[in-house]
């Protein structure tokens, strides 16, 4: 960014990246640049890079901080030192300060730094520990708890509609997972202390499950709503018709039912219809989303002689 660090570039993600994209980028970069996994000669630059990665994650993973950063930028939003302030940004020499709307302090291993806006006693190794369950790969940093475990779980569409319980095997043993009705693809659930045992009586790590939901080909999910493209012969759009469209039906084992949709005479291609309460169960709350049907025209590739005569007669009239 013109007036400071570009946190998106630091994590290697676009500005419209999802929270899951940001987490995945952090996990990869934090492991790669942890000071204890690089050669001795690279430790200084690795620690600087490691702190930078954690600083970027601290801002972009917090919706409020991310909004401020997107609005004001790095320096303008209080994420860096301004002209005339001692230090050179988030890891300059001063222990605290005031920039923009934020005041802050940063301390780590007895050293004080100018911090990113809104950080209070932020230690980058604490962020690393939240993900991986330990502070370092060696040296003086000792584990505070067992290793966190990360798994992806495939979820059938029917289980996403009805909800389900599944028992899975992970490194730490068998775990029963409750799949909530309406679960989204990419939903992550944390199971406290279901990760690996910690050393010397320290707590277990945590287990993180990311759900991957299989959607039927006819559906496109938008939040709790489902989108459907419905192809109809041009005659049905002209004359009107009753069409059957797939919807979510929790009374069906596969979670899919059919609903009748009235197509008025003279409907234009691209028209959208909304079937209320026929979409996915709401993950947080009661009821269901909607099904949004967009009508497309289906043109015949060939017509009979009689059909052609009728069309020519229609054109003349």
Question: What's the topology here?
Answer:
Blueprint: H1 7-11, H2 19-33, H3 43-60, H4 63-76, E1 96-99, E2 102-108, E3 111-113, H5 124-132, E4 149-155, H6 157-162, E5 164-170, E6 173-179, E7 188-191, E8 207-213, E9 220-222, E10 225-233, H7 234-239, E11 241-248, E12 256-263, E13 272-275, E14 291-298, H8 305-316
Parallel strand pairs: 4-8, 10-14
Antiparallel strand pairs: 1-2, 2-3, 5-6, 7-8, 9-10, 11-12, 13-14
Helix pairs in contact: 2-3, 3-5
Strand content: 25-35%
Give the structural class: alpha+beta
Name the helicity range.
25-40%
The structural domain count equals 3
User: What's the tally of helices?
Assistant: 8
Q: Please list the strands of the largest sheet in the order they lie side by side.
A: 9-10-14-13
Shape: elongated
The name of the CATH topology of the largest domain is Helix Hairpins
Q: What this model shows, in words?
A:
With 317 residues, this protein is α+β, with helices and mostly antiparallel strands. It has three domains: 7-132, DnaJ domain (Helix Hairpins), CATH 1.10.287.110; 149-213, Urease metallochaperone UreE, N-terminal domain (HSP40/DNAj peptide-binding domain, Sandwich); 220-316, HSP40/DNAj peptide-binding domain (Sandwich). It is built from eight helices and 14 strands. The protein has helices spanning 7-11, 19-33, 43-60, 63-76, 124-132, 157-162, 234-239, 305-316, and strands at residues 96-99, 102-108, 111-113, 149-155, 164-170, 173-179, 188-191, 207-213, 220-222, 225-233, 241-248, 256-263, 272-275, 291-298. The strands form five sheets. The protein has a four-stranded mixed β-sheet. Strands 1-2-3 form a three-stranded antiparallel β-sheet, with no helix packed on it. Strands 4-8-7 form a three-stranded mixed β-sheet. Helix 2 packs antiparallel against helix 3 (43-60) and helix 3 (43-60) packs across helix 5 (124-132). Mean pLDDT is 79; it is low at 80-121.
């Amino acid at each position: 960014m013109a007036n400071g660090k570009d946190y998106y570039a630091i994590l290697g993600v676009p500005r419209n990246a999802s929270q899951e994209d940001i987490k995945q980028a952090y996990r990869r970069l934090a492991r790669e640049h942890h000071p204890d996994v690089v050669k001795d000669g690279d430790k200084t630059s690795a620690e600087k890079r490691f702190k930078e990665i954690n600083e970027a994650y601290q801002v972009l993973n917090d919706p409020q901080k991310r909004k401020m950063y997107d609005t004001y930028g790095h320096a303008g939003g209080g994420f860096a030192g301004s002209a005339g302030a001692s230090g050179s940004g988030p890891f300059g020499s001063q222990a605290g300060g005031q920039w923009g709307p934020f005041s802050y302090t940063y301390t780590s291993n007895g050293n004080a730094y100018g911090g990113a806006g809104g950080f209070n006693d932020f230690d980058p190794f604490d962020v690393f520990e939240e993900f991986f369950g330990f502070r370092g790969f060696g040296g003086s940093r000792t584990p505070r708890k067992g290793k966190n475990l990360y798994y992806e779980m495939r979820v059938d569409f029917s289980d996403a509609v009805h909800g389900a319980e599944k028992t899975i095997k992970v490194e730490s043993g068998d775990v029963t997972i409750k799949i909530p009705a309406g679960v989204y693809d990419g939903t992550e659930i944390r199971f406290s202390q279901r990760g690996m045992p910690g050393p010397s009586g320290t707590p277990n790590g945590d287990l993180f499950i990311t759900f991957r939901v299989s959607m039927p080909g006819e559906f496109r999910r938008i939040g709790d709503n489902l989108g459907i493209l419905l192809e109809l012969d041009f005659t049905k759009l002209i004359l009107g018709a009753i069409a059957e469209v797939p919807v979510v039906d929790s009374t069906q084992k596969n979670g899919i039912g059919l609903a009748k949709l009235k197509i008025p005479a003279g409907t234009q291609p691209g028209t959208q219809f909304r079937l209320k309460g026929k979409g996915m169960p709401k993950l947080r709350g009661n009821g269901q989303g909607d099904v949004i049907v967009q009508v497309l025209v289906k043109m015949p590739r060939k017509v009979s002689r009689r059909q052609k005569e009728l069309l020519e007669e229609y054109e003349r009239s």
